[in-house]
């Protein structure tokens, strides 16, 4: 049994309908390349930096770091510069909007490679950036796969009807990292939007809390064309997640993944669109925030804990399936394991 005939595999030229999420501060060129080499599809993230025209040392370093990760992925994948690169790159729409000229520069850095796909999420005007890519493709006689991540039936309906994207990622409430507080669980979300699709329309993928091949199979059985995993791939040697964070995540007990504004409030990383919060491991900072402690005090405590290597207040993004991951494995082994488990459950 295989995934022959799967529409996502046909569209991306992959063997397994699994994609790694573009996680800011976590994904690397080696992680994206590892997923692709194993038969899935890997994505890089431009993250929270690099969206300015490089006029300062910080923005120049961010831009060069992004280019370095692209080069690393290309080397591992064995592709020549200028030829298509079989990975994708994720962009945060609200940061593109914040500095449009810098955003265009970073987008062009990916499109000029050229990468196979771009992913847009969390923006008030994603259609503008979709058009930017389409115009670039038309001018250069190319076809870049466009992916959008959305969390409500209404928004997904617009993407299907008006935006003419290639792939829509339906992100459920279980997803680690940033997401919309009001989003339904992934199974409810995909079950609600799949009837809205038409032949020739965008493929629907599911994301949120997925950590095992059995869960991948469940979503495929609902009718999605593929599945996104984030937390599972953050627990690989190739990810940039710090070793103390990986250790803390692997040793965390069950049911500690929570949605909260505390993660951004305490780190002072606000600016996300209205309705967006984060899902991570419950910490002392979350407890104190929910109790109503002064935010300036919580920020000072976080800084002190970071200096002392204390993980009790560290921000560790984690979807609801984190406790199903028992050990660190290379990205290639993760994809292979997911494939075996998924096919076994589909067969059953």
From TrEMBL:
InterPro entries: Aldolase_TIM (IPR013785), NMO (IPR004136). It comes from the Eukaryota. The keyword Oxidoreductase applies. GO terms for molecular function: nitronate monooxygenase activity. Keywords: Flavoprotein, FMN, Oxidoreductase. This is Uncharacterized protein. It comes from Agaricus bisporus var. burnettii (strain JB137-S8 / ATCC MYA-4627 / FGSC 10392) (White button mushroom).
């Amino acid at each position: 049994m295989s995934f022959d005939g799967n529409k996502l595999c046909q569209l991306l030229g992959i063997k397994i309908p699994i994609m790694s999420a573009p996680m800011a501060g976590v994904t690397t060129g080696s992680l994206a390349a590892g997923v692709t080499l194993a038969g899935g599809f890997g994505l890089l993230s431009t993250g929270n930096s690099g969206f300015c025209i490089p006029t300062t040392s910080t923005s120049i370093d961010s831009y060069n770091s992004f280019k370095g990760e692209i080069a690393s992925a290309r080397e591992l994948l064995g592709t020549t510069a200028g030829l298509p690169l079989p990975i994708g790159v994720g962009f945060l729409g609200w940061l593109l909007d914040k500095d449009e000229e810098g955003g265009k520069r970073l987008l062009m850095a990916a499109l000029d490679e050229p990468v196979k796909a771009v992913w847009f999420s969390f923006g008030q005007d994603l259609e503008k950036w979709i058009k930017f890519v389409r115009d670039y493709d038309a001018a250069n006689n190319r076809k870049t796969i466009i992916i959008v991540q959305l969390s409500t039936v209404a928004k997904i309906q617009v993407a299907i009807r008006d935006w003419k994207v290639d792939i829509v990622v339906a992100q459920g409430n279980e997803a680690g990292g940033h997401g919309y507080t009001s989003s339904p669980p992934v199974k409810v979300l995909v079950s609600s939007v799949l009837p809205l699709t038409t032949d020739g329309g965008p493929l629907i993928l599911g994301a949120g809390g997925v950590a095992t091949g059995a869960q991948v199979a469940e979503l495929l059985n609902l009718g999605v064309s593929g599945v996104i995993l984030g937390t599972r791939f953050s627990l690989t040697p190739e990810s940039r997640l710090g070793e103390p964070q990986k250790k803390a995540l692997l040793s965390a007990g069950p049911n500690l993944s929570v949605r909260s504004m505390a993660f951004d409030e305490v780190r002072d990383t606000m600016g996300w669109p209205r309705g967006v919060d984060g899902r991570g491991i419950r910490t002392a900072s979350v407890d104190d925030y929910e109790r109503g402690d002064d935010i300036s005090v919580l920020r000072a405590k976080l800084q002190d804990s970071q200096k002392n290597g204390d993980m009790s207040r560290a921000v560790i993004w984690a979807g609801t399936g984190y406790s199903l991951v028992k050990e660190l494995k290379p990205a290639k082994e993760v994809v292979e394991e997911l494939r075996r488990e998924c096919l076994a459950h589909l067969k059953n």
